[in-house]
């Protein structure tokens, strides 16, 4: 994602901030039960972990966080996992944009796992 952040910054400052803040928001402490249990089940069936399942797990986390972004906006929450919510950090209008950005990244992760070779 570091390369994507650099590309985003060179494209437009707002897009760069979106990627940086999405990364910070996503990496806040949390349980990550969905992606971890998916990874463990995959490893149980396939005996190894590969890039395809890692991309799926990343997509799952981004999906969950995109939902949390909207939840924070609707509930007018000020904090999420020890940090400011996106709409408190930027504005209410940007929260939906960040949620959409997380969904786009999620779709990219899922498609890359589907299109990669087995």
Task: Walk me through what this model shows.
- With 118 residues, this protein is mainly alpha-helical.
- The protein has helices at 2-11, 13-26, 33-46, 51-75, 86-89, 92-115; strands spanning 79-80, 83-84.
- It has a single domain, classed as Farnesyl Diphosphate Synthase, CATH 1.10.600.
- It is built from six helices and two strands; from the N terminus they run H-H-H-H-E-E-H-H.
- Strands 1-2 form a two-stranded antiparallel ribbon.
- Helix 1 packs antiparallel against helix 2.
- The two termini are 23 Å apart.
Radius of gyration: 15 Å
Instruction: Give the beta-strand count.
Output: 2
Query: So how many helices?
Result: 6
Low-confidence stretches: none
CATH topology title? Farnesyl Diphosphate Synthase
Write down the overall geometry: globular
CATH architecture descriptor: Orthogonal Bundle
Structural class label: mainly alpha
- Largest sheet entry: 2 strands, antiparallel
Calculate the mean pLDDT score and round it.
79
Distance between the termini: 23 Å
Order of secondary-structure elements: HHHHEEHH
CATH class: Mainly Alpha
Number of domains: 1
Give the % helix.
over 70%
Widest sheet: strand order? 1-2
